[in-house]
Amino acid sequence: MKTIRIFISSVQKEFAQERAALRDYLRGDPLFRQFYDVFLFEDVPAQDRRADELYLDEVKQCDIYIGLFGCDYGSEDVEGLSPTQREFDLAGELSKPRLIFVKKSTAGCHPKMVALIDKAGSQLIRRHFTSMPELIAAVYASLVHHLEDVGCLRTRPFDATAARNSTLEDISPDKVQWFLSRARNARDYALAETTSVTDVLTHLDLFYKGTPNHAAILLFGVKPQRFLISSELKCMHFHTLEKRKPIPSYQIYKGTIFDMVDKAVDFVMSKLNRSVGTRELGPQAPVEYDIPQEVVAEGIVNAVAHRDYTSNASVEVQLFPDRLEIWNPGTVHPPLTLEKLLLPHASQPNNPLIAEPLFLTKYIEKAGTGTVDMLECCRKAGLRQPEFRIDAGFFILTIWRKKIEAIEGKAESIVELLPDRHHVGTMSALSLHQVETLNKCLIDTGITELMEIAGRTDRTKFRNHVLNPLIEAGFLEMTVPDKPRSSKQKYRVTEKGQNLVTKQKNEES
Questions:
Q1: Average pLDDT of the chain, as a whole number
Q2: DSSP 3-state helix, strand, coil percentages of the chain (rounded to 5)?
Q3: Are 430 and 321 contained in the same domain?
Q4: Which of 201, 272, 287, 303 yields a CA-CA distance of 20 to 30 A from 382?
Q5: 18 and 57 share a domain?
Q6: Which band of pLDDT confidence, cut at 50, 70 and 90, is reported for residue 506?
Q7: If 0-12 CB within 10 Å is exposed, 13-18 middle and 19+ buried, where does residue 169 land?
Q8: Is 0.85 topped by the overall pTM?
C-alpha cells in the first residue's frame, strides 16, 4: 500500500511546537503510521537548494496539504506573498485535499493572514483550535475521514466509530450541561452553556453520520455500559500483599468516564490511611493521606483515557497495604517507551476524541506532563518512585504507599500499663483485640480492616465487644459520630488513647 504523504504548512516560528507534535503523533499512532508519513522542513538535511523551491516541490509530491493558520503571515517575496500563501494556492491548483486549522487568538493578526484565512473559508471547511489537544483531536478526525473516503479503512478507530443502535436519546442532556459548565469555568471553553446537545457533539467530533460515536456514549451516555460492557471500572481493596480471595471490599462502577473516575478516586481515598496535623499554620488542621489525592486521580484518569476499549477486559484499581496498582488494557505505542514516561514527552492519546473533553474539564492537563507531575508529587510526599510495566496485555502503574510507623511490641504491654486493669471507665480489662485496635487506629481506620486484623467475622459482635467499650471508655472515637453505621465510618484513637499508646512506647524504649 502506497504511503499517504502529508505536507504541513505554517509559519514555522509561530507553530514550531504544533508541527513537531503533529509529526510525532501521526508517526506514533498505531493506526495512522500504517498509512501516513509527514514532511517537515525541519527534518530535511542541509542542501544546496533554495528553501522555497523545496517547499513547493514537496507540495507537488504530497497527497494531503495541512495548513496551520494563525496571526503571522511570514516573510514576503518580491510579489508580496509568503511561503504559506504560495503553498496553499499551489495545493489548490493541483487539487490536493486541503485541511485548514485556524488558531484562535485575541492578539492583532497580520492583514494578509486575515485575508488568507477568509480565502480558505470561502473554499473549504475550516476547523478552529485553541490548544494542542484540540488541534490533535481535530486533525485526528479529519484524517480518519480521509482514510474512509479513499477506501483505506473499512472500520473506524474505536472512539470515532458509531455506537451501534445509539441515538441522541442515549445522550444525557444533564451530563452535557455539566460538561459545558465545567469546561467554561476550567478552560474558558468557547461554547455557551445554552448550546444544544447536537451542536456540542458536533463541535467535539462525537457524531458519525448522524449517530453518536463510542466517545460520545462514554463521555455523555445515559447508560454507557449498555453499549460497552467492559468499559466498567473495578475497584478492589486487599488486606494481603497479593491479589487473593476473599476480597474485603470490591466495587464495580458504571456510568460515564467522568462518573467512574470520580467514584474510583473516592473509593481509594476512603481506604487510605489518613493523618491529621496541628493548626499551627492556620485554622484548618492539615490532612495527609499515604498517597496524595492528585496522584491517585492522575493514575486513574490516565487509565480510563488511554485504555484499549476494544479489549474485553476492564480497568482495575487494586489497593494493597503497601501499594496501589492500576491496570488498564493496552500498551504504550512507539515512539513512546516505558522509560520515556519518566521524562517530559509529547502527548499521544490513544483515544483523542475522549481525551479532548477530559482536557477541557481539567481531568487531564497539558500534553505529556501527567506522568512527570505524578513522579514529582510522589517525590515531594516522600514516596518511592512509581513504576510502569506491561504484563499480559495490561499497562500497569504501581504507586507505593507511605510507610506508617506502627506501635510495635506485645499486645499485653498496654494492658499492663492501665491505671486499673479491672476498672477502665465503664469497661473491664482490655482484650488483645482491643489493644490491636488501639495500635491500628493511630491512623483513621475502617471497621472492615480492623476486623481483618483481629480475625473477626461478626460485625455486630465486633462492635459490641471491641469498639463500643473503647469508645465508652474514651480511648477511641468515630470520625462520623452522627452516623455510627455509615459506610464511610472510620475510627481513631483519642488523646486519652494516644497517651496510653505513647506511655507503652516509652516503657518499651
A1: 84
A2: 40, 15, 40
A3: no
A4: 303
A5: yes
A6: low
A7: exposed
A8: no
As a whole number of angstroms, the distance between CA 348 and CA 345 comes to: 9
**Hey, CA dihedral for 258, 219, 152, 122, is it positive or negative?**
negative
For residue 473, what is the domain's CATH number? 1.10.10.10
Q: How many domains does the chain have?
A: 4
> What grid cell was written down for 350?
490513544
Q: How many CB atoms lie within 10 A of CB 378?
A: 19
**DSSP string across 289-326:** ESS-HHHHHHHHHHHHHHS-TTSS--EEEEE-SSEEEE
Residue 256 near residue 227 (C-beta atoms within 8 A): no
| Whether the Cβ atoms of residue 332 and residue 303 lie closer than 8 Å to each other | no
Range of the domain at 250: 230-400
Domain edge (last residue) among 122, 154, 186: 154
Per the structure block, which three cell numbers stand in for 302?
A: 490516565
Q: Is residue 405 part of a domain?
A: no
Geometric angle at alpha carbon 256, from 251 and 260, rounded to 5°: 30
Among 509, 442, 505, 500, smallest CA distance to 473 is for 500
Q: How far apart are the C-alpha atoms of 99 and 143, rounded to whole Å? A: 9
Chain centre to alpha carbon of residue 169: 27
